[in-house]
Amino acid sequence: MALRRRRRARPVLSTVLPGGALPPPSALELERRAWRTRRARRSTLVALASTLLFAVVAYLAVTRSPGWPRVQATFFSPSAALDALPEIAEGLLVNLQVLVVGGLLVLLVGLGTAALRTLRGPAWAPLRILATVYVDLFRGIPLIIVLYLVGFGFPALGLQGVPTSPFVLGTAAIVLVYSAYVAEVFRAGIESVHPSQRAAARSLGLTHRQTMRIVVLPQALRTVTPALLNDFVALQKDVGLISVLGAIDAVRSAQIQVGQTFNFTPYVVAGLLFVLLAVPSARLADAVTARARRRQQSGSLL
Amino acid sequence: MSVLELRNIVKAFGSNVVLRGVDLAVDEHRVVALIGGSGSGKSTLLRCASLLETVDDGQVLLDGEDVTDPRVDADRVRRRMGVVFQAYNLFPHLSVLDNVTLAPTAVHGRPRAEAVEEARGLLARIGLADKAAEYPDRLSGGQQQRVAIVRALAVRPRVLLLDEVTSALDPELVGEVLALVREVAGQGMTIVMATHEMGFARQVADTVAFLDGGVLLESGPPAQVLGEPEHPRTRQFLARVIDAGRL
């Protein structure tokens, strides 16, 4: 590094003291900081006051409405909620199972489909086309129609070995639809990795597969994690749709109880349970997104 | 026999013809500097030589073997060349050490322990032994580019292709990268480098080749091409470089 040694020392431009310690703040800076603190405190107070005011107004508007006593008794009955809770919670376990099994399968099928779509070369054309058709088809059909077709169509074939359990068929339908979405998320991630990364990997002699596995996919996964978590939050509530096939999940349990008591509170209970399930995932998605943004801002061009 | 020989290389992107039949032979232990303005085809020529682009005509011969033959496995050929890019192109999700050991282990199947030992040796030589566990974005541009050079050297290539390796660097970081290139050249590595650093080309290169509009207008010893250029286009180019204070 002879060239480097020959270079002149850089002139010192900053006012940072030797040893890296900051000089004590000037009176001007202290005054600015005090002003910022005062302003932040005032903003918090204003926000609190306006939130409270809004809550009070909303509460009064709803509870003073003429139909409120009936609505309260039909939708927000504490006793009906308590009665319904155990069975709905039990049903929610079914939803959770679909969520876990389905979620994992969606990741696998989605990644596989995305990988098929990025294949090049004429030999892979049939698989590439198949993957494209699959994604186009299942992104277009409403989930509930897929549920009906898979849930009632497959058993109707009467084939040996075709499962008839609404749990299995419902999961299959959800996996079919969500994998199509997730495949597109993965593909966007793969394409977001800069071509120069591929060039660097190929120039080292890595094969297409090695380049994909070692260089492209790890970077793509990092990019798409927030989007994947977002899809996971959506999946969490859509697993409730398997109730249309007759699986005794949280929604179906609520429906049964509504039918018995003519009180709609169980639906509210089931809805609240799904919300409770979704909140942590949503917060996690936010946190991961924020972290990814920070990484990107601190990182280099690549 | 030349280590790398380019014969009548033609390359077009759509209707834009970038290379119009370039011939260049690089003998072992020689350093060839490609000079020329932006868009003259320097980078494209290097990308064709490293098989990152498919040539539209002509041949690339590596140790006498025609590697542009479609029956040749391009992955195997690329293992025998090292490429360093203008924007470093380190893998941001891998540590410095993993960047350097990736090709020796994944491509050449060498034992990890051995590859790590050699990589640490190489990093120590460029004064970055203590950065082995860091990720590339924690390094300065000059440090990243030196790691990229070491990464290319770790596969023990027959020829090193350097594509404007200092163009993305702050002026004060250019020196450390050029010093490394000089050292590598001094150890006998065969090098083809596209560069705007005329002073460096004059000192280090055995041959300077001037590309203009996709044609190799003249080539020869640096003193001749940079000192007494024959072709008017070369003189014009060098005059502009001198005006810009780069020579």
Automatic annotation (TrEMBL), chain A:
The lineage of its organism: Bacteria, Bacillati, Actinomycetota, Actinomycetes, Geodermatophilales. It is a multi-pass membrane protein. CDD domains: TM_PBP2. It is found in: Cell membrane. It comes from the Bacteria. It comes from Geodermatophilus nigrescens. One of its GO terms (biological process) is amino acid transport. Residues 92-285 form the ABC transmembrane type-1 domain. This is Amino acid ABC transporter membrane protein, PAAT family. Pfam families: BPD_transp_1. One of its GO terms (molecular function) is transmembrane transporter activity. Belongs to the binding-protein-dependent transport system permease family. GO terms for cellular component: ATP-binding cassette (ABC) transporter complex.
TrEMBL record, chain B:
This is Amino acid ABC transporter ATP-binding protein, PAAT family. PROSITE patterns: ABC_TRANSPORTER_1, ABC_TRANSPORTER_2. Pfam families: ABC_tran. InterPro entries: AAA+_ATPase, ABC_ATPase_HisP-typ, ABC_transporter-like_ATP-bd, ABC_transporter-like_CS, MetN_ABC_transporter-like, P-loop_NTPase. Belongs to the ABC transporter superfamily. The keyword Transferase does not apply. Keywords: Amino-acid transport, ATP-binding, Cell membrane, Membrane, Nucleotide-binding, Transport. The keyword Transport applies. GO terms for cellular component: plasma membrane. It is found in: Cell membrane. The lineage of its organism: Bacteria, Bacillati, Actinomycetota, Actinomycetes, Geodermatophilales. Its main location: membrane. One of its GO terms (molecular function) is ATP hydrolysis activity. It is a peripheral membrane protein. Residues 4-238 form the ABC transporter domain.
